[in-house]
Structure prediction request, 464 residues.
Amino acid sequence: MTSEIPLPPKPPARAERVSLWRYAKLFRQDILSAQPARLYRAWMAEFRTPFFRSYLMNQPDLVDTVLRKRPDDFPKSDRIAEGLRPLLGQSVFVTNGDQWKRQRRIIDPAFEGGRLKESFGAMFAAGEAGLARLKGQGDVVEIEEVTSHLAADVIFRTLFSIPIEHETASAVFYRFRDYQRSQPIMNLAAFIPMPRWIPRFFRRSTRANAAEIRTLIATLTHARQDEIAAGTAPDDLATKIMTTRDPETGDLFDADEMVDQVAIFFLAGHETSASALAWALYLMALYPEWQEKLAEEAQAITGPDFSVVSKLRLSRDVFRETLRLYPPVPMMVRESACPEQFRDRDVAKGSQVVLSPWHLHRHERLWDNPDGFDPTRWQTENGKTCQREAFIPFSAGSRVCTGAGFAMVEGVLLLSMILRDYRVEYAGDVPPVPVAHLTVRSQDGIKLRLSPRVPAGDATHTDE
Prediction:
């Protein structure tokens, strides 16, 4: 008799009808478990309060309209950005309109295909350093802490050519860890019109951490400006961005603007990658047969050779399936800039339009086996169709994450390197519960037992 294949864990859904007070309480604890189960089947759902109207869109053509066809008519909501602005300032993540378009014209060239290949050596070096750190951490580790450290190392090596052990880089990392623990991705005060001092009061410690992080980042950007002026700057992402002129105006980012952009590069490039990699490793512990397939495939990794990426096909499918089940950013909020009508419903100007990768990626009317772990789905007709129409872990359209290609290479490489050297087993007593903070993390962490793999031909044999 065979045991039933376990499903990857997901948070419990709330009751269909709850009071506004109960919803607010659930929302503050976790936005995922504050949602009803019907959102996994609904094409569109309306949520009304005395303060705002919100419409969640799961129908693929509606998602396409908001993200790809008419993005200027659905800018990012300023209220949602409120909680992140102390850290991100006027970065590309929170701006809209002409300001955002100018920022993307300067940033995008740094992440073109050729630049990704040039960053691969730094990614590989961060992976090797992470594996070395694991040797001294014991057999059971909190894997989210491990992946956070590893992803931060990748960012600093590729952005500023410094390892995580660098004094300033290390200080940013630890300050950000405190920030991450205190700041949800969306806070309730951002949804409800209130005096501006109220949300600031509740985020006093968060704002202090944000200010410290920005001060540290400023020291790095100013030092890099001096190196650029002296002709001694390394050819990394920071140098590329700081020396790229807007093709329309000829302007460069000034120092303050660069601090804003580095803050979002660190947030997006470190926090999201850490989340996805941690869940991928947990899934490999849950499905050991896939773990062994990836470990075998990973034997192809012998050095910082970019061509190896094309050989890690199974790892890429597993990482993509992880992003489907556990999208690091579970919800994105836009605002209707003009009156609309969707599915015969009037959507007033100023209404919130919510796009939820979490629900879209598990939608019961779109995906085969929506809650199951199946990396082979990407080779099926259903999987290919859904990948085009219902898979948005990096958003889509003009506001797609500029580092999406970077993240896919990084995640696949690091996952493969870890499984090449270690066998992973889940060491917790109960399955982890996904919750949304800055990204989708486990409510109580994810403990994994790591056992070193013995390379072929290295086993010691003794005769007795």
Notes: The radius of gyration is 22 Å.
